[in-house]
């Protein structure tokens, strides 16, 4: 199947009592398997809402989202959780690590939810943390790590179950430029060398241009879908 994610005439309406707020309005979008797509737009444009719906964190008020061809509207909450757990790895701006757990324990957590045996959890966690350059920090807790290191732990956790899709919401938003460049290089590698489908929200143009395609959203609608030239991608990937 060519399309790993498909949104068909999706709307998201929040009921605020007497006021109804339309965050997304009749949005249709297809993400191909192995594609790197950025979603960008001004604050309040609906880009994070769109990301949440495309990654099954939220259900649309109208329309349909299909993940690997399966419509999420027909899934129970537990079935949706299973899809997220096995198919999608999440990387958030705020890291979302559990403070009392070490880096290794944070990475092993999704494996525990999937019922993976303890020995394999440890082996997988150690391997992934080594791959992101944290072999010397895997037994440290989040407050003992820098922002860039915490985000690398978050990426390692996202990779723990080897998902098809990596969803990143402002992954460099809380990082300095050097740490941000390292995280973006890791995301590039996930796409280029591992063939992961990458779906990333960002408000930074130079970050968005690392993708193959940029979706511009404004006032809850897709304003433009822009292909990124390869030369521009290489320039941005070398940006420090």
Automatic annotation (TrEMBL):
- Keyword Transport attached: yes
Q: Which PROSITE patterns match?
A: ABC_TRANSPORTER_1, ABC_TRANSPORTER_2
Q: Name one GO molecular function term.
A: ATP binding
Signal peptide annotation:
none
InterPro entries documented for this protein: AAA+_ATPase, ABC_transporter-like_ATP-bd, ABC_transporter-like_CS, MacB-like_ATP-bd, P-loop_NTPase
Annotated coiled-coil positions are: none
| Pfam families, sorted | ABC_tran
Which stretches make up the ABC transporter domain? 8-240
Under the heading PANTHER family, the entry gives: CELL DIVISION ATP-BINDING PROTEIN FTSE (PTHR42798:SF6), LIPOPROTEIN-RELEASING SYSTEM ATP-BINDING PROTEIN LOLD (PTHR42798)
In the record, the note on similarity to other proteins reads: Belongs to the ABC transporter superfamily.
What is the name of the protein in this document?
Answer: ABC transporter ATP-binding protein
């Amino acid at each position: 199947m060519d399309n790993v994610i498909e949104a068909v005439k999706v709307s998201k309406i929040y009921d605020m009592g007497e006021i109804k707020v339309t965050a997304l309005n009749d949005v249709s979008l297809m993400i191909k398997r192995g594609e790197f797509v950025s979603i960008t737009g001004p604050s309040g444009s609906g880009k994070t809402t769109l990301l949440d719906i495309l990654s099954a964190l939220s259900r649309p008020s109208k329309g349909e989202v299909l993940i690997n061809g399966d419509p999420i509207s027909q899934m129970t909450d537990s079935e949706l959780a299973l899809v997220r757990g096995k198919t999608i790895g999440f990387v958030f701006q705020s890291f979302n690590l559990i403070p009392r757990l070490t880096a290794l324990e944070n990475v092993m957590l999704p494996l525990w939810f999937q019922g993976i045996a303890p020995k394999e959890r440890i082996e997988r966690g150690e391997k992934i943390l080594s791959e992101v350059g944290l072999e010397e920090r895997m037994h440290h807790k989040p407050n003992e790590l820098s922002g860039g290191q915490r985000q690398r732990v978050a990426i390692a956790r996202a990779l723990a179950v080897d998902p098809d899709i990596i969803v990143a919401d402002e992954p460099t938003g809380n990082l300095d430029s050097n740490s941000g460049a390292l995280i973006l290089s890791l995301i590039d590698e996930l796409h280029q060398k591992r063939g992961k489908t990458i779906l990333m929200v960002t408000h930074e143009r130079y970050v968005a241009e690392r993708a193959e395609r940029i979706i511009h959203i404004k006032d809850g609608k897709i304003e433009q879908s822009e292909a990124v030239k390869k030369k521009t991608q290489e320039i941005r990937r070398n940006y420090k």
